[in-house]
Specification:
single chain, mainly alpha, 2 domains, about 80% helix
Length: about 130
Amino acid sequence: MMGNIYTKHKRDLNIAEFYYECGLEHHPEDGMLLNNYANLMMEKGNFSKAEQLFKKTLNLRPVYPNSYFGLALLYRVTGHPEESLKVLERLFILMPKTAGIESTQIYNEARNLYSEIKAETESKTTIH
């Protein structure tokens, strides 16, 4: 919680990172903590650390759909749209198993992101 407060409200990303690291020492398999820390790393531009954290979250159960979306967004930002689409497609396969009212928004965002990336990659293909 402290990491989230320092990330979103106080905008002190270094202190937020400290709290996320402390949390992971005690709860290394906490999907929400890993996802939030991955988002912080992405915001700080540490894309390799963000990727590592997102991927760790994808191996946890129950499935945390936000991490699929986060990893797809990371791949888009770093210029890997094909990888982004693959991650989103995996999420869509998992959707019936993980669908719940709390996940509806992230699935909507994932579908929108997928459509945007598909349109971008198709327009690049037709131009060349």
